[in-house]
Amino acid sequence: MSYIAQNNRHSLKHELDATKRRLQESCGRLEELLKQREEELRYWEEEHTRFREDEEARQDEKAREEDERRRAEEQWQHLFEDRLHRDQEQSSARRSTIAKAWDLYEERWQNLQTVSSGLTFQSIPWPVANAVTLPGSLTSHLISQFILSPEHSQTKSRTRRIHTALLRCHTDHFDKKVLYKVVDRDRHAVKEGVGRVVRCLNELLVAERAKMS
Asked: What's the pLDDT at 196?
């Protein structure tokens, strides 16, 4: 074999070896890339599973809280009505519903001092004769009808009654004494309710002062 032929054969073998190495390197990179993509896919599948499980847990917790809220509302309504019913049966002086509701209202304000946490919207002694479950139920008509009723507090003037109720609901007093005890899910509703009560009482106070001027 001539020198040229040998040299060509040697060059061809060298090129084939180089091509083979490049192919092997390419295959290695492809395998590494495939492995990386598989790991990424497995990661996102796990993330999706965790997200679904967390969402299911949140939905279960929300349903549980709603169920507890409903039971608390039913329980409070039952206790409220039961207390009024027992008072009506036991009282020899057939007092009005508003007078009895006022006694319960005052009693519940006293009881708040012994509670450290867990208050709900229904736990707050709102200045109305009947139990309420939403801030929107705290209307000016119902509040004034209750606070200024002649069926209770006959020794206190109308302005004195309004002042007493305002002190209880004043932001500084209420936030420090009551609001921090309210559960998170009801805190916004309680703040809205207190705001409604304060606005109504301020309007009543202005009206009473106008009558005296």
From this structure: 95
